[in-house]
Amino acid sequence: MLRGAFARLRVRRGRGLLAAAGIVAAAAMLGAAVTVSYGLATGFERTAERADLPDLIARFDEERPRRVSERVRGLPNVEAAALRLEIRNVPLTGNGRYSDKGVAEVVREGRRGYAIVDGRDLRPSADEVVVERGLATEWDLSVGDRIDVSGLEGVRVVGIAVSPDNVAYPLAAGARIYLSNEGLLARYGSESLGFGEPPVNSLLLWTRDPARLPETLTQARAVSYGITDLRFVTRDGVQILIDQAAGIVVALLIAFSLVALTSAVLMLAASARADVERRLQTIGVMRAVGFSRQGVAGRHAAEAVLVALPAATVGLALGALVAAGPSARLLGALNQLGPGIELLPLLLLCLAGIVAIVCVATAWPAWRAAGMAPAEALRGAELRAGSGRPGRRGGGAARRLPTPRGAFGLGVRIVAARRVRLIATVAVLAVATAVVLLMLALAALLEQLAEDPGTLGKRYALTADPETASASEIRALPGVAGVARRYEVEASDSFRLGENLRIIAFPGDHTRYEAPPLAEGRRVRGDREVEIGLGLAQALGLGPGGTLAAQLSSGREARFRVVGVVRALEKDGRVAYARPRRVLAADPSLEPTLAIRLDPGVDPAGVQRRIAALGGSEGGGGARATAGASTSNRSFLSLLAGLLRAVAVINGLVCLYALVQSLTLTAVERRGTVALLRACGAGRGHVALLLAGAAASVVVLAAPLGVALERFVLSPAVAGLAADYATLPLGADGAAIAFVGLGVVALAAGATALVARRAGRESIVSGLREG
Amino acid sequence: MTVVSARGLIKTFGRGRAARRVLDGAGLDVAAGEVVAVIGRSGSGKSTLLHLLGALDRPEAGSVSVAGQRLEGASERALTEFRRHHVGFVFQFFHLVAELSGEENVLLPARLLGGEEGAARRGRELITRLGLDTVAGSLPHTLSGGEQQRFAIARALVNDPEIVLADEPTGNLDSESAQVVLDILRGVAAEDGRAVVLVTHDREAARIADRVLVLRDGRLEDERARSPRLAAGAGA
Question: Is the domain covering B2-225 a CATH 3.10.310.10 domain?
Answer without folding.
Answer: no
